[in-house]
């Protein structure tokens, strides 16, 4: 898994690209604070090499809890900036710092 951050000078946003290697998976989505944990509109596109990839514009100077949903299973990203316990989920979520 990988996270790439591209900060824009002209706008207060960061283009964040999420990459998930999941050759056997049918669907992968990224959900988090930035999209109210809703997988609609956050599906990653499957590439020919079997990885899933998607880029999202997120506001700079924020941190967001997030996880991937891989065929219905929640998965953390080992490339996250840190992890944070979430009482609602009863587990740790990955966190991205922008």
From TrEMBL:
Cited Pfam families: AMPK1_CBM
InterPro entries linked: AMPK1_CBM (IPR032640), CBM20 (IPR002044), CRP1_MDG1_kinase (IPR050827), Ig-like_fold (IPR013783), Ig_E-set (IPR014756)
Molecular function, one GO term: kinase activity
Classification via Gene3D superfamilies: Immunoglobulins (2.60.40.10)
UniProt superkingdom: Bacteria
Every CBM20 domain range: 8-98
PROSITE patterns xrefs: CBM20
Keywords: Kinase, Transferase
Similarity section: Belongs to the 5'-AMP-activated protein kinase beta subunit family.
Name this polypeptide is given: AMP-activated protein kinase-like protein
Organism: Flagellimonas meridianipacifica
């Amino acid at each position: 898994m990988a996270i790439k951050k591209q900060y824009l000078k002209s706008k207060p946003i960061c283009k964040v690209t999420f990459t998930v290697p999941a050759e056997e998976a049918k669907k992968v989505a990224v959900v988090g604070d930035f999209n109210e944990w809703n997988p609609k509109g956050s599906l990653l596109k499957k590439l020919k090499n079997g990885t899933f990839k998607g880029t999202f514009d997120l506001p700079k100077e924020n941190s967001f809890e997030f996880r991937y949903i891989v065929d219905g299973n929640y998965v953390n990203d080992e490339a996250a900036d840190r992890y944070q316990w979430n009482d609602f989920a009863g587990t740790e979520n990955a966190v991205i710092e922008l």
